[in-house]
Amino acid sequence: MAILVFRFSILSVFLFQVLSVAASIGSSSTVKFLPGFSGPLPFVLETGYVGVGEKEEVQLFYYFVKSEGNPEKDPLILWHTGGPGCSGLSGLAFEIGPLNFKEQRYNGSLPQLILNPFSWTKNSSIIFLDLPVGTGFSYGKTSEALRTGDFGQVQTSHQFLKKWLTDYHPEFISNPFYVGGDSYTGLIVPIVTHEILEGNKHLLPFVNLQGYILGNPITIRNSNKNFAIPFAHRMALISDELFESLTTSCKGEYVNIHPTNEDCLRHYDTYEKSVSEIFDGNILLPKCPSVSSKLQDVSARRSLYKTPKVLHDLKPPFPTLACPTYKYLLSYYWANDNQVRKALRIQEGSIGEWIRCQYGDDYSFDIDSSFPYHVNLSSKGYRSLIYSGDHDMVVPHLDTQAWIKSLNYSIVDDWRPWFIMDQVAGYTRTYANKMTFATIKGGGHTAEYTQKECSVVFNRWISNKSL
């Protein structure tokens, strides 16, 4: 009898999980209050899941912020956060969204949220998506559903958009639509944009595609790493002599150095020692310990039917309050709070610990370049905004300028400064085929380091105004 009761109990738990998941499919909720934010939210926030795949085995979680201007006519943006595998919460609360974490020393209470006065949602509606599956609060219902990669991201992003527009918000189908992202999604966003363009041929639904937006984008795999050395030289991080030795011995290839090229290996080792204490996300800022959560998901993927292996790290390397990564630590405490999960309507039992950035061993890096898609999209007249923080050493502006130059577009408005309140905030150049490039003075790898400047660039561009 005890064995029967025990088996019945297991079956009951299993059925409860299955029914709970079934109930979550196609779910969305308006969130009026968020733990950590004082009072009702002064903007419309919706969270939910969209099931994609033949049996909706992939459940993608999203945050949708409706434009604070004129949402019936303002642009709609599907935003992809880099990584791969960084949560859409990064875009929402660190970079371009309406919220920021209040950067104060953690005292055991829930981290506080404040408004970002430079949110891009002032005049655009934005969907912040947890992509690929296993990122943030997105989860898979089977082990097979958790297998993904670059092209997998592209396909699920497109499926998500079609379903979100037709089943959730058909009122946005006619709004001007843009695909956006930063960092690693430089490989993803142009191809998603192309897939939407191709999908429009079938008219289900016809998306009012206008273009795409990319910040510090990886475009040709590993090219950014090769450009890190000339960038370091220009920024006086390495000497003229070392740069000349590297150039001569390595011949511009610093990623796959042949083991017999001893001179190149020796000089590259000297280079690495020279920049080892530099924060490559923004070389102006201090280098600090990376945020490590107390429970590290070794499998780096979550599923209802797979128990993750975890390492108990009792003394993770926490950054100090002065560190640019401190806000990431606050996000761990916030997103893993039970009250926060209830407010966001997170499906119980779907994931364990929320981790800001992660991807699994089964992720396929199967896109080497998005360059041909830039060529294709611009030849068809789609707009593009490419911006670069000029102090980012992860994807240096030199890398971005090089592939843009190789497009061989005519220059419409040549290199010049752009201003905020009569002060130079960066430099810009506009090309034929509706491509605009802009640098952000003092900017880093994402918009989080220069929120005001990035918002000004975006607002002028999205409004069809000159920078």
Give your account of this protein's structure.
- The chain has a domain at 383-462: Rossmann fold (3-Layer(aba) Sandwich).
- The chain contains twelve helices and 16 strands.
- The chain is globular, with a radius of gyration of 23 Å.
- Strands 1, 2, 3, 4, 7, 8, 9, 10, 13, 14, 15 and 16 form a twelve-stranded mixed β-sheet that branches. The chain has a two-stranded antiparallel sheet with strand order 5-6.
- The model is unreliable at 1-25 and 293-316 (pLDDT under 50).
- Strand 2 and strand 3 form a beta hairpin.
- With 467 residues, the chain is an alpha/beta fold.
Determine the mean pLDDT.
89
CATH class of the domain at 383-462: Alpha Beta
Radius of gyration: 23 Å
Shape: globular
Helicity range: 25-40%
Number of strands: 16
Distance between the termini: 76 Å
Secondary-structure-derived class: alpha/beta
Question: What is the element string, with H for helices and E for strands?
Answer: HEEEEHEEEEHEHEHHHEEHHHEHEEEH
Instruction: State the low-pLDDT regions, or none.
Output: 1-25, 293-316
Number of helical segments with 4 or more residues? 12
The biggest sheet, with number of strands, parallel, antiparallel or mixed sense and barrel status, is:
12 strands, mixed
Instruction: Please name the CATH topology of the domain at 383-462.
Output: Rossmann fold
CATH-scheme architecture of the domain at 383-462: 3-Layer(aba) Sandwich
Estimated share of beta-strand residues: 15-25%
